[in-house]
Amino acid sequence: MAALPTTEEARPSRGGRPRDPSRDGVIRAAILQLLADVGYGALTMDAVAAEAGVGKATIYRRWRTKQDLVVDTISDLNRAEASSPDTGSLEGDLRELLHNLVGVVNGPTGAATLSLLSTVPRHPALAEAFHNGPLAVWQQSFVTVFENAEARGEVPASFRSSVAAEAISALLVQRWLLTGRTVDEAYADEVLDAVVMPLIRAAA
Fold first, then answer.
1. Which of 126, 141, 154, 202 is the most buried (most CB within 10 A)?
2. Is residue 51 part of a domain?
């Protein structure tokens, strides 16, 4: 969906060996590209190594299986893109978050996610990775934005658990997943101005 961080603290992989964080960015980018191009079923560890331009041993040191590789990649998606903005207003924060979401769905992560959607229901580990990874990251970002808005007196504390709050990104996601129509910043702005902000004003 969007560019992934190229550095991270060295930590053991699911294979139990330490990884060289300097190569993680290019490897993860290769994984996303292959998921988008060939899907989960046709993806292989050797293909990831070739796409990333690294030796096979580099891949197998990090992950024992293809599922481990994809789960690990999914778990780390969107952590940079979904960071909570602090523009000083709820409208500004939501506009920036929605623009970030637009960037994600139109990038490599978005393409890989679309390719994986039919596979996830048959692989509980992948479903869990989505739930605890990108979905949790975006949810926490919106919660932080709502908390800041509550502190400024823009919305009541009950808003974060309301249907209105849940609907903020729903139209973008629906358009992206179901219609194939363009999801761009202009559409995000239209949704925010015509739907989201009126709902927020009504709730406040």
1. 141
2. no
Give me the CATH number covering residue 151.
Answer: 1.10.357.10
Distance in Å from the first CA to the final CA of the chain: 33
Q: Which of 82, 80, 77, 5 is nearest to 35 (CA)?
A: 77
Number of other residues whose CB lies within 10 A of the CB of residue 62: 24
**What pTM was estimated for this model as a whole?**
0.82
Domain containing residue 137: 90-203
Q: Is residue 123 part of a domain?
A: yes
Q: Kindly report, residue by residue over 101-124, the tens digit of the pLDDT.
A: 999 999 999 999 999 998 999 999
Q: What is the pLDDT of residues 30-60, one digit of tens each?
A: 999 999 999 999 999 999 999 999 999 999 9
